[in-house]
Write a structure and sequence with these properties.
It is built from one helix and eleven strands; from the N terminus they run βββββββββαββ. A hairpin with a 4-residue loop joins β5 and β6. The strands form two sheets. Strands 2, 4, 5, 6, 9, 10 and 11 form a seven-stranded mixed β-sheet that branches. A four-stranded antiparallel β-sheet has the order 1-3-8-7, with no helix packed on it. With 132 residues, it is mostly beta strands. It starts with a strand and ends with a strand.
């Protein structure tokens, strides 16, 4: 049973960096052909895929967020993390980590096209408010 748990501060000041960690249990983030994503949902809006780190450490990002988004991992802790810089109140959202199986020839264009669809496992989400 793969379980994902988001953690991090629930309040971030404008212009600062939002940092979240996803702790994975029941499976390894290095297991072949799985990818690990960050997705968010602002209040009253739809889901937005932010980016992904694959089992081999490859990263791909949403074009709209690429300039200020970074996803990394700590394999010793079975965790992956999100860094979103220069935040504004519009970044207030419930942030989810999620995972799905991918093909052996998966690449950036495919990741962007697929977005948040087809996720096999989801965390419960954590609300992050950007406010001064």
């Amino acid at each position: 049973q793969v379980q994902l748990q988001e953690s991090g501060p629930g309040l971030v000041k404008p212009s600062q960096t939002l940092s979240l960690t996803c702790t994975v249990s029941g499976g390894s983030i290095t297991t072949s052909y799985y990818a690990w994503s960050w997705i968010r949902q602002p209040p009253g809006k739809g889901l937005e895929w932010m980016g992904v780190i694959a089992y081999d450490g490859s990263t791909y990002y949403s074009p709209s967020l690429k300039s200020r988004t970074s996803i990394s991992r700590d394999t010793s802790k079975n965790q992956f993390s999100l860094q979103l810089s220069s935040v504004t109140p519009e970044d207030t959202a419930v942030y989810y980590c999620a995972s799905k199986g991918i093909g052996s020839s998966w690449y950036e264009g495919m990741a962007v096209a697929e977005g948040y669809y087809g996720m096999d496992y989801w965390g419960k989400g954590t609300l992050v408010t950007v406010s001064s």
